[in-house]
Amino acid sequence: MKQINFHIILIIFLCSISANAQLDSIQHLPEVMLTDSKLVHFSKGFKLEKLDDSIVGNNASSLTETLQYNSTIYFKENGYGMVSSPSFRGTNAAQTAVIWNGININSVFTGQTDFNIISPLNYDEISIRSGGGGVQYGSGAVGGSIHLNNTFSFKKIDTTELGLRFGSFATLGGSVSTTHTWGNHYLNVGVDFISSDNDYDYVGKNQKNNHGEFLRFSAKINEARKLENGVATWNSEYIYNDRNFSGSLNTVGKDAYIDIATRNLWQIQQKLGAFQTKIAAAHLFEQFRYFPDSEESFYDEGSANTFVSYLQAEVFLLKKLRVNGKLEYNYITAEGTNVGKNDRKTLATVLLLNHRVSKNFSYGLNLRKEFLNDFENPWLFSADAKWKISPRYGIRLNGSKNYRVPTFNDLYWYAGGNLELQPETSYQGEFGQEFSFGNFNVDVAAYYIFSEDLIKWIPGNGGHWQPVNIQKTTNYGLEAVVGYFMKLSKDQTLDFNANYSYRQAEDLEKKKQLIYVPFHKASGMLQYNYKKVAVYAQGLFNGKAYTTTDNSDSVAGYTVFNFGAEYKLPFEPNITFGGRLKNIFNTYYENVAFRPMPSRNFEIFLNFKI
Amino acid sequence: MMNKILFVIMTALLFISCSNDDDTPQEYIPAAFEKGILITNEGPFGNGSGNITFISEDYSTVTQNIYRTVNGTQLGNIVQSMGFQDANAYIVVNNSNKIMVANRYSFEAVDSIKTGINNPRYFIGVDGNKGYITNWGDPNDTNDDFIAVLDLRDNTVSSTIPVSFGPERMVSYNSKIYVAHQGGFGQNNVISVISGNTLESTITVSDVPNSMVVSGNSLFVLCGGNPNYTGNETAGSLVEINLSNNEILNTYTFGTVEHPSNLTMDGNNLFYSLDGKVYSLNITSISLPGNNIIDGFFYTMEAKDGMLYATDADDFASRGSLIIYDLSTNQQVQDFQTGIVPGGIYFNE
Fold first, then answer.
1. DSSP E strands: which ranges in B174-305?
2. Which among A388, A439, A573, B134 counts the fewest CB atoms within 10 Å?
3. Model's pTM, two decimal places?
């Protein structure tokens, strides 16, 4: 069996596809600016991958799909479009931080982000930072963090992009985004939606995915204004999701969720002498309504307002030493049917340092200390180094201490919430190697994570469940990313990308692999371009994952393939049309046990760029 | 590995017994699960299927997942409980909203009931062809709870009886059904008395009646009391009801923060669990809390013929176990692996 798995992996590794621009290939055109620049400046010894626009476009249905096919992150998706939670390097769902323009947006209630309620088309740049980012991004950045960034620029831009999508199961999608600059202004406004009946067949089961309808709508405004010695920016988004929840092979779906989120961030950057300063204020609003029966009007709800403000000063000494100090104050107030009304205040101080010793060697040291929290306020640190030994070979090294604070559900849930909870703590180290042979790039990383005081809900006295800091785990694994670009002739090129990862995540008490953490995952993409035509095949392999804590039961591994093609009309305005056939072999597969994923289906699209 | 071998052997035995049936019909072949202990395992919540574990009377064989082994299909999500009438087992599959009917000795599927029930919890059979199923309906709605009356000749729901919210376990006495209303997602404090197709009366007991036994002319009801998180914590109690007039004879009260459960009986002794301890009480001279005879957190317990059968659901996300204690010594004599969340213990004899 192991051999079979190995061969499957090898096959995928060799013949399929994935796609990410790697590491140092993050090339920021000088005129395009990031709202969260410390991501680049203080992550030198970390693995940082930026997803190309074309890659996002190929998997645009949800952020789950985008990342599933283009990263080593494993997703536990409760049926297509349903609740989807990540496991980054084998860590739990609340240990992946989602960072929107530098602000942590994981839910106040669950501590995690549902990756199916985020549209990947709402951002200019999606990056994946592997490894602990607790110092910079706070609670939850343990396995890694996903960065959703909007950029801005003051060069002349006057474009409008319009996309229309249509697919199986009455899936309809559309997006418009328009960007203009004039004088000292930058303005980007856009909307995006997708709706689907999602009533796919359970292959070979003579059953349908009833009650899986979903609708997602997002809108964004991003504005920037040049000031005398700096810039003022405003980023804003609104997200609305209305979903019915699918049943499983054994149950009939009845419940539904409506999620609403708004996010606003105002920043002023000013150059004061040698210092680059930033003052920022943000407001995040999240609301969920859970309907046990979608036909009834009864619901449970929760809503939270998070206010973030920070002051940051950065100095770049002798073109070698970059130092960044930050003082951040957070105030969260949340209210819900099951958690009552509660608030939390946090004051955090952050010191980041990056020293470029030479052109080929740099290292960083980062520290964070929090105050005001009701629980123990940990010291967090990280250290990293990057050494480019030769033009073809570089190594990186990093180590960090990270944490995750208890969520409002953990603390205040009625019944069971435990006010005695302490943060989860983890220590980790990573060693990475980067090889580059012309158009052939390989990145191999090995990591180790030890976590303690992990919060787990366990049945307590009197039969009700309570969260306690009980679990200890160790995770270790290997990740390989391969990218290859080949020019076949004047008009023909070939692009190949693949990811493979092996992870072991063990509960130290039970000596068993954690549930829903597959040992193996691989994905890849092979794309052939001829003039204005692109054809690609894409594959995903998720290995077997255990579903019980004693590893007595598992959900089988699976491999799915997609095939796509697109054609760009050779004149202005720029029109691209194409299509994609998903799950071409009509494979039956489950991501979560007893919750089948879609049968073979198609999607066609038409994009205008004016 | 052991389980795999057992599974193969059991499957082989089934085939052998089947072919033998055809060849020599006169010879008596015992059904596969004729004598022994049956455990219903709820299974993982939300996904997956519950199942049934069989342990032979002499403890020599353990067979997991017997319904699927025999029938090739899963029972469904959350196997809540099982009841019996004559040769049939009525397996209540809560989240899949169905009752699977199988022969209790061979576990060959006989029938299924999928209409007329809503969030079913427990089954009890009486008078040969009548059965009752407690139903929560929507657990957030306290006004839609009911008892479904089954005609066991064709396994259809013949009528429904609206009742107070959260009907759970049932016992029968003199053809009447006594239903404990534990209270679903909330708390309740009544016992419904059902006769035929009508709700004859209700008896108000203490909060959260969770388990019952009949001894002679008395019905003992163990009430857990409201838990602390309700903000209105009440003491657990043991209520004795005179079955000839349905009046309360005695109420024995626990401490305010004590919430007992799992009342079971063997001979003249009652057993229950409280705060990680099992206590015994002599029916003729009840004085709480009684003797602490065994330590351990158990998900469910049944006392029978000098033995105490208790299940441990561990973390509710891995296989549980059945532990058997000898009540003459209060020592563990056996333990067996079960399925996930072993919630019901039954006997074929």
1. 176-181, 190-195, 198-204, 209-215, 218-223, 237-242, 247-253, 261-266, 269-274, 277-282, 291-295, 300-304
2. A573
3. 0.87
